[in-house]
């Protein structure tokens, strides 16, 4: 199986995808989602990895960025470059 790559900038979400803990702050998330993601990660169908804001073009649409980072991400998106995937990890 070649895993689907899921790049995430939220370390808490990465932790939850790999660990079966459900606490008071995560009880609002449907148990089905916890189960499905964890099972897919465990089976190797999904690989979750951390991506920093400086390498995550999607942050252009979801975060306040400096002009320099904004321009870099806009350039990447306009030209089809998605450097958020680490090529050493199969991306």
Report what the structure shows.
The chain is of the alpha+beta class and 91 residues long. Helix content is 36%, strand content 11%. The longest helix is centred in the middle third of the chain and has 13 residues.
Kindly provide the radius of gyration, computed on alpha-carbon positions and rounded to a whole number of angstroms. Answer: 15 Å
Question: Between the first and last Cα atoms, what is the distance in angstroms?
Answer: 14 Å
From the spread of the alpha carbons, the general shape counts as: globular
Helix proportion: 25-40%
H-E string: EHHEH
Briefly note the structural class of the backbone.
alpha+beta
Percent of sequence in beta strands: 5-15%
List keywords for this structure.
alpha+beta, 91 residues, disordered C terminus, two-stranded parallel sheet
How would you briefly describe this protein structure?
The protein has 91 residues and is of the alpha+beta class.
Write the layout of secondary structure elements.
Layout lengths: L3 E5 L2 H8 L12 H13 L2 E5 L16 H12 L13
